[in-house]
Amino acid sequence: MKILKAREMAFCDENSIKLTGIPSLVLMENAGRTAAQIILEKLDFQSAVVVAGSGNNGGDGLVIARYLLLANKDVKVYILSDSTKKLSEDNRKNLEIFETFGGEIKLLGKEDKLIKLRHDIKDADLVIDAIFGTGFKTPVKGYREKAIELINSFAKKVIAVDIPSGLSTDTGKIEGTHIKADLTVTFAYPKLAHILYPACEYCGEVYVVDISIDRQYTKAVKRYLLEPSEIVLPERRKNSHKYTYGHLLVIGGSVGKTGAPIMASKSATAAGSGLVTAVVPEELDPIFENSLVEEMTIPVDSEDGLFGKKAPKQIKNIIKNGKFTSISIGMGMSVNEYTTGIITEVLKAKIPVVIDADGLNNLSVIDNYKNILKKRKYPTVLTPHIGEMARLTGLNTGEIINNMEDVAKEFSEETGVFTVLKGSRTVIATPEGKIYYSIRGNEGMATAGTGDVLSGILGTLIYRIGVEEGIKTGVYLHGLAGDLAAQQTDTESLKATDLIYSIPKAYQLLKNFEPKYYFCYPVDLLSDYLEKK
Ligand SMILES: NC(=O)C1=CN([C@@H]2O[C@H](COP(=O)(O)OP(=O)(O)OC[C@H]3O[C@@H](n4cnc5c(N)ncnc54)[C@H](O)[C@@H]3O)[C@@H](O)[C@H]2O)[C@@H](O)CC1
Ligand SMILES: [K+]
């Protein structure tokens, strides 16, 4: 499913109304009725206060209020405006319909009625926040801000219509007072604020409902949420052998950092590589031999436990003479002139390459590395975290954190590589400008080695199912393995090897996943599966 920005949603709404001919009141009716249905289904309550703004979000709130009234709930409606003349046309129309159905509204256009609002919020089982939606412009001030504060302080449960009021649709940033919701019902598509941290933490569980907008008007949007129903899985054929499933070359390791390539190699086997070979510094080979059972090693020249002078040429020959199907390089390889030479050789390989960790640090010290990437004719995947991206681009970490999507997109478009920019919400950018987000993963994965696990998974899957699908599935599988591992332990104690052991279960969950939602579905389609321990 796509993830939209406010203007992309508005463009789609406007064109659906103008060109497809669906009346705006029908869209609003669909939005409000389906939201009411979710509220009635999910929550046990008798009384509700609807706090509505003057725009179309408020109009949705009035439709919800009508359906709650029809369901025999006690409904009180506050409109945050001093005059019905200031309401949007569809809002006013729904206000009139609500009154015709016997509903009562209170106009709250200045601070004088806040005490009454506070009293009603305290009395009610839940509050419906329909103050601002996608038309919100920060900041919120005056009595509206106070109303939001009252809701946050006294409501037993808060349901946000479209987006918690006070959050900006297009970013994860928090810029002022905003609603803290327990549940959000949004329309047609999720928006960035529902997905990105920290804003998404204030949305509660997010449901997306279809309101009959015409989706042809979002064709230009190339930003997607990875979904279990769309994930492509590798397949095993009965009549096959290990070479059918690829031979991944893992290159990495140095004294003190042997675990990194070991975890990448083991993850590759768990992700379905037919064969895995780790190229490692010779002096450390016994350590690798000891830990890697199913995986092979090729020791190359080393000095003081680091890749040595002859290593680049040896690796060049290994790649040339072996029948490898992809390479994952960088984990724990350290940075010196020889390792830089190794990266240069690897970039000449005529197979897909995943570069992570020190591989990226080596890359960033190569003059003109962007040109080398641009000229490379075979798929390249870079998996930087924010610090590595800062070294690659020269941007400071703050600039990257605040513009993850744009930074990844520009980098991929400029260099022709696939970028997996890792963070609390990993962003994938393709050379053609597509963006993918995954909502899988958790804070427990902010621990050493989880990146090495991702390198091994990606190295395997970009061969098994193609580069773009391999990255999408790999990132999702990695996050899901983390979520499953977190259920077995505590997020404090989660460790990278737990992820490797959870890969089989993650595969099974994805293989057995059956989408059962139409018109209305949670953003996290696996939430039911993951809650069950
Ligand atoms: N046809 C459509 O476009 C549809 C829109 N829908 C709803 O309409 C919403 C968007 O409606 P609107 O564009 O009318 O915008 P909103 O209802 O989100 O809010 C805009 C209103 O609030 C005011 N406002 C914005 N920021 C403010 C601030 N900081 N302080 C005080 N006032 C502020 C604006 O002047 C305007 O009156 C969506 O979120 C959704 O809930 C749905 O009904 C589905 C159909
Ligand atoms: K809202």
Overview features:
YjeF_N_dom; 533 residues; binds ligand NAX; alpha/beta; Rossmann fold; 43% helix; EC 4.2.1.136; elongated; 2 domains; 20 strands; ten-stranded mixed β-sheet; UDP-N-acetylmuramoyl-L-alanine:D-glutamate ligase; eight-stranded mixed β-sheet; binds potassium ion
The global form is elongated
Query: How many strands, which pairing sense, and closed or not: the largest β-sheet?
Result: 10 strands, mixed
List of distinct ligands in this structure:
ligand NAX, potassium ion
Second rung of CATH, namely the architecture of the largest domain = 3-Layer(aba) Sandwich
Portion in strands: 15-25%
How helix-rich are the residues, as a percent range?
40-55%
Would you report the number of β strands? Answer: 20
* Structural class by helix and strand composition: alpha/beta
Within the largest sheet, what's the order of strands?
Answer: 8-19-18-17-16-15-14-9-10-11
Relevant CATH superfamily of the largest domain: Ribokinase
Mean pLDDT, nearest integer?
96
What fold name goes in the CATH topology slot of the largest domain? Answer: UDP-N-acetylmuramoyl-L-alanine:D-glutamate ligase
Q: Given the structure, what is the number of helices?
A: 20
From the N-terminal CA to the C-terminal CA, the straight-line distance is: 27 Å
Low-confidence spans = none
C-alpha Rg, in Å?
27 Å
Task: State the domain count.
Answer: 2
User: What's the CATH first level of the largest domain?
Assistant: Alpha Beta
Domain YjeF C-terminal: 225-510
EC number: 4.2.1.136, 5.1.99.6
GO molecular function, one term: ADP-dependent NAD(P)H-hydrate dehydratase activity
Subunit structure: Homotetramer.
